[in-house]
Amino acid sequence: MPVIAPMPAARPAPIPGQRDGADDTVAAGTTVDHLTETYRAHYRSLLGLAALLLDDTASCEDVVQEAFIRVHSARKRVRDPEKTLAYLRQTVVNLSRSALRRRILGLKLLSKPMPDMASAEEGAYDLLERDSLIKAMKGLQRRQREVLVLRYFADMTEAQVAETLGLSLGSVKAYGSRGIAALRIAMEAPV
User: Fold this and answer.
1) Where would I find the RNA polymerase sigma-70 region domain in this sequence (predicted)?
2) I need a labelling partner for 125 at 20 to 30 A (CA). Which of 78, 80, 144, 165 fits?
């Protein structure tokens, strides 16, 4: 089906001696021919500007083409033909900023990958190992157990363990080494 465009409204005839200044300034330099020439002359330099702001060539080309489209659609607001290039440069910068903002937002919204899940067998093995460690820890002397729990599970230094238990630093080291030796023997023994 053919599309029928409406006819432009008829303008009243100009009054002799009176200038319609607004039409002259809009028509000067904002024509499609002027934009086409600007496109041909400055496409590469605008592409270089976008390349300084963005990282991939496809995005740079998209930004520059979008800038020309936007300036073309708003060409009636560009009254001075000398400012067309300045408008284009500013539009390239603004569109590059918008593209970067969208990327950052997209990265923030990406879901974080799930950590590797252990298989059921691994979980059962870890549970058995933990149970045997708890059983072996219960078989230690009370001071050895206290030193090992504070040192390795509470992540305290030997000096902090000594202060907490009211022992000398040498006693903490002795209880710790004897406790680890006893755990090694208990964990290696067949159940």
Assistant:
1) 39-103
2) 144
Residue 135 in tokens: 């059983």
Q: What share of the chain is helix, strand, coil (3-state, %, to 5)?
A: 70, 0, 30
Question: For the chain, what's the residue count?
Answer: 191
Separation of alpha carbons 130 and 126, rounded Å = 6
Q: Give the integer Cα–Cα distance in Å for 169 and 159.
A: 6
pLDDT of residue 66: 93
Q: Which amino acid is at 68?
A: F
What integer best gives the mean pLDDT of the chain? 79
> Which one-letter amino acid corresponds to residue 27?
A
Written as six digits, the tokens of 163 are 């202060």
C-beta of residue 182 within 8 angstroms of C-beta of residue 135: no
Instruction: Residue 86: name the closest of 69, 71, 102, 103 by CA.
Output: 71
Distance of alpha carbon 144 from alpha carbon 165, whole angstroms? 11
The CA-to-CA distance between both ends of the chain, in Å, stands at: 87
